[in-house]
Amino acid sequence: MKVVLFCGGLGTRLREHSDTIPKPLVNIGYRPILWHLMRYYAHFGHTDFILCLGYRGDLIREYFLSYNECMSNDFVLSCGGNKVELLSRDLDDWRITFVDTGLHSNIGQRLLRVRKFLEGEDAFLANYADALTDLPLNEHLADFSRRGVVASFLAVPTAQSFHGVYADNDGIVTAFGRMRDSEFMVNAGFFVFERKFSTIWKKEMNWLRNPSNG
């Protein structure tokens, strides 16, 4: 199953980093979020990636074109440092398509611009490329197929520490408390779509007008 990764947003919520690098290249340890996310999908056998590039897409291209597998794999160095023998590899079975989908495009527009690369697929995965999860993806996909729905996404409790306020129609506060303790859920950005969803996103202009981008 192909994986569409939205890598083109301006990263305004990570402004201290995104002034210089795109959000998917912010490091966790010695590798960027994007790498960890792709490894997650590859663990479940999904290694055909489509990167929707935009803001500082050149840096994402450069990262993979100059990728150094020694940074995350065991290796043997010999011959005075002139010979490197990798004992394992990261990207041997990965296929990555790099597509410029525009600087200010929203999610729907980015999907439309990579639509041709999804021809022949019954379903595909998609992600905002700015979060990680321990979701058992194989179980999630089995549930998606069993329900026979067109689209699905992972929703999780908010991690925000701020408090929410509940009020009646007269503006009288009836309750308040931590958002993380409420039933409020947020979109975690892990999507599954049926291929026929393409006919919906092409016609549903409200989503295409949504100002959010990725």
Please summarize the sheet with the most strands.
Answer: 6 strands, mixed
Strand order, main sheet: write it out: 7-4-1-8-12-9
- Shape descriptor reads globular
Overall pLDDT confidence: 83
Account of the 3D structure:
Strand 2 and strand 3 form a beta hairpin. Mean pLDDT is 83; it is low at 204-208. The longest helix is centred in the N-terminal third of the chain and has 11 residues, at 33-43. The chain is of the alpha/beta class and 214 residues long. The strands form four sheets. It has a six-stranded mixed β-sheet with strand order 7-4-1-8-12-9, sandwiched between helices. A two-stranded antiparallel sheet has the order 2-3. Strands 5-6 form a two-stranded antiparallel ribbon. It is built from seven helices and twelve strands. The chain is globular.
